[in-house]
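Bit of a strange request maybe. I'm writing a small parser for structure token strings and I need a real example to test against, not something I typed by hand. Could someone generate the tokens for this chain?
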Amino acid sequence: MDQHEFERWEIALVEMRIEKNEAVLDPESSPLPAAAVAGFEGLNYYFPESELRFKAPLVRDAGADTVMLAKGKGGEVPYVRRGHVTFRHGGRNHRLTVFGPVGEGNPGDARLWLPFSDATNGGETYPGGRYLDLEVDADGFVDLDFNYAYNPYCDYDDRWDCTLPPPENTLSFAVEAGEKRFGADH
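Reply from user aminoacidic:
Good idea to test on real output. This should exercise your parser:
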């Protein structure tokens, strides 16, 4: 990425973070408990890391099967396995499964979701893993940008029951990008 592209990427990332902080402040839609909204000072993020952004093809698996993913408080929820992405980091190839919702009338790639776990979980990031939302471009690629990784609502308030990443989506390295654990030091 050249300097101009880097600046555009960094500005878009900062704008997304500002918009998310503003949304969390809205008491009508905030995932925070009402008492925490008044004292909210902003979500915690890692410094942007362009090295944790990858362009990867979405490889379609043979048949989009429905799988059951575990919920944090027990139980399971169905998702459709849409395929997988592979990227290279730290001298190794890593593969992650991409999911979509069941039903809801969403065709194919309308909503793609990648839940993942990594070595930061339980320390700097939410113990139950983090999420990425993905879009497929016209050439079949996704922008796998871990700087956009976000916490499930369970990190903000225990009234939520969030879906956990499947074991197959556990990365062996620390993804020091994206959103940090709520309430952690800035």
